């Protein structure tokens, strides 16, 4: 007599939380302001403002933008604020930093507003593999949020999950 194979994972109350499903679609752009600095290092206000006035900001329509300066220039805070003010009418979001900083900021907004009540008293696996650029910080933010309501939290896949938290 053959024994029936039972998929215990499918029968369990185990819930998978996939950060990739929350990934906001849209073009990501790194905007390096070094090209608007004298020799890439010195901010001359008049020339800087002129460069910004001459720039075609519409090319950033509906994009997520990470502002940076790839040289060791000392850039006053107002310079990034001024660039951000030019981008504001066109972009979905602007941050100062890298693409990872941008992704972290996007996920922070999403996760802060996420209703996790559906995970109340359930075992949850935060899916680990992703084809999209989900930043490490997003996993930590998700863990922190889900841990408040879940019975337990694991990381990975159902077949090889790493336990992270169990309610006492």
Describe the structure.
- This protein is an alpha/beta fold and 168 residues long.
- It folds into 2 domains: 8-24 and 115-166, no CATH class; 28-91, no CATH class.
- It has 5 helices and 7 strands, in the order αββαβαβαβαββ.
- It has helices at 8-11, 45-54, 77-87, 99-112, 136-147, and strands spanning 15-17, 28-32, 64-68, 93-96, 123-127, 152-156, 162-166.
- The strands form 2 sheets. Strands 1-5-6-7 form a 4-stranded mixed β-sheet, covered by helices on one side.
- Strand 2, helix 2 and strand 3 form a beta-alpha-beta unit.
- The radius of gyration is 22 Å and the shape is elongated.
- The model has no long low-confidence stretch (mean pLDDT 92).
């Amino acid at each position: 007599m053959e024994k029936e194979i039972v998929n215990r994972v499918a029968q369990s109350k185990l819930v998978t939380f996939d950060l990739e499903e929350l990934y906001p679609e849209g073009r990501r752009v790194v905007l390096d302001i070094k090209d608007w600095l004298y020799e890439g290092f010195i901010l001359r206000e008049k020339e800087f403002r002129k460069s910004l006035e001459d720039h075609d900001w519409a090319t950033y329509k509906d994009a997520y933008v990470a502002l940076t300066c790839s040289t060791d220039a000392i850039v006053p805070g107002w310079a990034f604020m001024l660039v951000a003010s030019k981008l504001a009418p066109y972009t979905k979001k602007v941050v100062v930093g890298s693409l990872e900083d941008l992704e972290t900021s996007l996920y922070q907004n999403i996760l802060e507003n996420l209703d996790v009540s559906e995970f109340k008293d359930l075992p949850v696996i935060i899916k680990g593999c992703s084809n999209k650029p989900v930043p490490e910080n997003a996993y930590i933010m998700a863990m922190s949020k889900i841990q408040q309501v879940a019975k337990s939290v694991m990381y990975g896949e159902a077949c090889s999950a790493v336990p992270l938290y169990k309610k006492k």
